[in-house]
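User: Hi! I'm working on a homework problem where we have to compare a predicted structure to a textbook description. Could you give me the structure for the chain below?
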Amino acid sequence: MQPPSTLRRFQPATVWVAVFLLTLVPHTPLCAQPGSALGRMQSADLLARFFAPDSRPLRGYRALRTLTASTRGGKMTASMTAWTSLDPEKGFQFQVVSEEGSAIIRKKVLLAALQAEQAAVGSNERDQAALTEANYEFLAMSAVPINLVKVDVRPRRKHVMLVDGALFLEAESADLVRIEGELSRRPSLWTRNVRILREYARIDGVHVPVAMSSTASVLLVGASTFSMTYKYSEINGIATGPRDFPSLDELQAERVTAAVIRRTADVERSR
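Assistant: Happy to help. Predicted structure tokens:
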């Protein structure tokens, strides 16, 4: 009997769904020196605001997504562009606009990722992957540049939907900026060292995912990657206009500028 296809065993779709299902939660200010550990009261306050209901939750959107994937150390690649939308009544829908590259990657990775998301919306998988105390232990917290707080998290059980790593929250708003780490359980025996990075931001006051990427080592085929970016044209029924969202470095620069402006204003008021 021939062994099953290693590429078929590679499941970036499963990896992506694991990250997509991590729920966002949010809000208010916190001060700490970069590199310092947070005190118990500060940590409890930050988590309380992180878990508090968002005053402007994401209920629906329309976004143009670009998905890319590669395997065999980059020798096989593919990309896909698709309009995606989430509606309270219609659920998640997508329409492929363009695609190129390896047919097997387009079908078994990129298209599979969109189909997996469509199946996951409204299912109990969301609860299994949620950033809650039922699923995770929230451990050490420390301030890191720029105006962020790193929160180490550890899954309470090994599950393909849970990430062993860290959250990065905005110190003042408690908004989730990014999550990174390794899946606590491999998607398959063929897939190892699955690392995840997912980034979030507020667009027009609504907290949304803006980019994600994953890397994995797959037996016999080597390093494999998957990434996706969003261009939102509508959020919660309000047009935003298609646009590229700033990179993480640009977002950090904006936070530094905002912090300088606030400190200058505080100094002026104290005079």
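For your comparison, note the following. The chain has one domain: 6-270. Residues 1-12, 15-35 have pLDDT under 50 and may be disordered. Good luck with the assignment!
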